[in-house]
Structures are given as structure tokens and as C-alpha cells.
Amino acid sequence: QLYVTGYSCGAALATLFAFEAAAQPDSIVPKPVSLFSIGSPCVGDDGFSKSFQSLETLGKLRALRVVNKKDIMPLMPKMSSFALFKHTGMTLNLYNEEDQYAVSYPTVKSYKSCDTDMFGGLVDGWDQVLLSSLASTPESQIGLVEHSLREYNLRLLLSRLPLETASLNDLYTQPELVGRLVPEI
Prior knowledge:
It is a single chain. The chain has 185 residues and is an alpha/beta fold. The chain has ten helices and seven strands. It has helices at 9-22, 46-57, 118-123, 126-132, 138-141, 144-147, 149-158, 160-164, 168-171, 175-178; strands at residues 3-7, 33-38, 61-68, 79-80, 83-84, 90-94, 101-104. The strands form two sheets. A five-stranded mixed beta sheet has the order 1-2-3-6-7, sandwiched between helices. Strands 4-5 form a two-stranded antiparallel sheet. It is globular, with a radius of gyration of 16 Å.
């Protein structure tokens, strides 16, 4: 099995690589390809998102996007040349409290993505940027603390016990999480 990881802009590149690897014949790349991205910006447009989800549906790709609450990097870019960017795969939101996390998947009804609509997609999340600028340290004012690997590590450690028993493939088999978009493998 192939595991692909990346952090920040490297996570965006890892997402593109995992997608490409999962699209290769099974005889070349064993499936599913497992992607674990940390603090990734939005990658791809609607067409990319649908193609990514098709590979998930076929059981060829599994993706977990780890995001710290108030990290501004995953909120960018909102758009480029009027094409809205989207996140793909399952999301693990980490909070700065013990055992506080949330797992979500971009189902039609329950997922709030980067781009719920043209205007909402552009402003969604900017409240986090503005509120984080009220913090007292200069690093917090530009969102660097929440995006640091140190902060990701600390928050993963806070949720270590419940997360140790979870597996990505098991998460993909939970209909209450993924709905009918991804069948059991």
C-alpha cells in the first residue's frame, strides 16, 4: 500500500500526487492509496473534487486532511481566475483542548466546504482570521502559531487516545460520516 503525506504547501502537492497515483492501474500502484495531509490549502476546482471523490467511491483513494482550528492556511486560496478551490477527502479538525476534535466528510448535506457559494466561499473563514488577529502575540496575529508543526503535534497529542483506535478505512465505512457517496470497501 502507498501512503502519501505532506504539510502546508507540501500537503497540496501530496494531494495531487495521491490523486495521480490512485488513478494508475492497480498492477502499478496497490490500492487504496492513503493520503494524510496536514494544514493543506484548498486544492483543485469542482471537477477535480468530483474526480477525487470518484476514486474514493471506487476504493482506490482514502484521504484524511488534518486541520487546526484557526489555522488560516487551509482557508486559502479561495479562488483564482474566478474558479473556486475545494477541499477533498475526510477532514480531522483539531481543537486546542484535550480530546476535542471533529471528523467530517464533504457530503452533500452536512459538509461546509471552502466554497458553499461564490460570495460565501470568498468570505467563509475570514472571521477566524480576524478573531485570531486579536491574540496578544505577534505570531498569532498572522496565524503562524496555529499553522506550525509544533501546534499540530500538540493538538494531535491532546486527542491521542481516541484517535489511536481509529483507522482511515474504518472511517470510510461509516454511513453517518460519509453518507452514500462512498460505499464500504
